[in-house]
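Q: Start with the shorter request: fold the first protein.
A: Done. Sequence, then structure:
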Amino acid sequence: MIARLFWVALIAGAIAGLVAAALQAVGVWPLIAIAETFEVVEAAPIVDMHAHGHDHAHDWSPEGAWRIGLSVLFDVLAGIGFALLANAALLLARSVRGLALDWRLGLGLGAVGFAAFSLAPALGLAPALPGMAEGDLLARQTWWIGTAVATLVGVALMVLSRGGVVWALGLLTLALPHAVGAPGEAMGLVALMGQSGPLGDDGMTAELAQRFALASLAAAAVFWAVLGIASAKLQRRYLELA
């Protein structure tokens, strides 16, 4: 049983990780390449942004290929790690609530994963391009982890409970990290979407930062949808839980 569950997570995580890498290669990595030019050329003209980003985003030199390979490997390994958690959660949801193991349950699980690990943290710490993040790194990471955990716990309490006090406690747990607020002068997704013009003195623009944040969240949403659905289908087929 445990061995089969591991293989299910391995396959589902690898599939989702490869899908995420493909989406990032199209919509995320080119934006990172553009942002990196601002770290080298101070106050780079906006008219040259896309040309610089195009050159760097398609860097197939040995160094560029090595970087692409590591990025893909990281996405796959991250997918496998999240898949282990997702498949354990599927087993728990089925055993506690008797939910049918189908693509709808997988998609719902993916939605929870996206909310916990992408959307909820982004409300306080929007996905940031190189050179954008400010403040104490440890404090930002601590808040991000705390928000992800609080979201998972809050959703679990609300879904697995039968209502009443436990449901209300879950809702409060969801809201707690946002009531505390992200550390320092961190910019959340809503605030970022309201920005316009340059961000700082290095040539970074609000438009570029907004495109990156939305592209990152879109790739994450597809990743979690694929991971959830693949996990449910593979569990149904190989663990014979249906």
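Q: Next, the second protein, separately.
A: Sequence, then structure:
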Amino acid sequence: MTMNPSIKKKTTPREKKRRIFIVSMLALPVLQWLVFFAYVNINSVLMSFQSISYSTGKITWTLKNYTRFFNELTQLPYIRGALKNSFIAGLNNLLLVLISLILAYFFYKKIPGRSIFRVVYFLPSIISIVVYTMVFKFIFDTSIGPINIVLQKLGVEATNLPAWFGDTHLAFPLIMLYCLWVGTGYNIIILGAAMENLPESVMEYSKLEGVGKFRELFQIVIPMIWPTLSVAFLGCITVMFSLFIQVSLLTGGGPGNSTYTVAYMVNSLVSGYSSDLEWGATMGLCFTVIAAPMVIILKKILDKVGEHFGC
């Protein structure tokens, strides 16, 4: 006896509960994506083509925001300064990855006291960024900071002491130093975890062959952890267009806007009482168009290197 295919199988109460559970678990992330990604980004694109009169609520569709962007990109020094600082931040993050790679390798080789050093390097990654920025600012405080006190003890006149965060030439390098101090621990954990998963047979063979530490790192370890390392390198471009919290907490833009980055500049345009939402949306979209090809090109280069390594 064959069943009629037109007769639908009755859904059991257990199956109904399972479907309700799946839908309820998916509903929140889908809703978040629709509201905080799809709606926000679509609205930002539309807003970049608008000129809004906040007194009357009138919206005019125009291209003047983009004309303004290309004019001010070449004319205003603070925009050029923000681009320069953002590029330096990307290079600083590259240095951060390289330092983390070397430290993670030494920890992997079980140097004496590695557990203590792991805690020391990782602590900044688990404590609030606000706490660490307060500590860092205190260290370089011009009145009671320990750095200036030590310099005075060494004979430096009070009038010759550096202004640190009040100096247009020192403020941004200090932010980069802070990023190195705080960001190293997280990368050490990620790269160290990748090294811990390396095949023991390969490492034992290299040891028996008398491979030195330098050669082992560059010819064995790096090629085998390349997928993880390449993601860290991609983060360099991400940092270029997303660094603003550190700037906001440490300098608030710095003296003479000397610590402006692209992300801080855009954030300052859309926050506060004198916000310019259309102009901020335009700048955000333009810099996204600049960043996207950079990410794609770097990803292709890293993939090519990975193919050479056999990844």
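Q: Describe the second briefly.
A: The mean pLDDT is 87. The radius of gyration is 26 Å.
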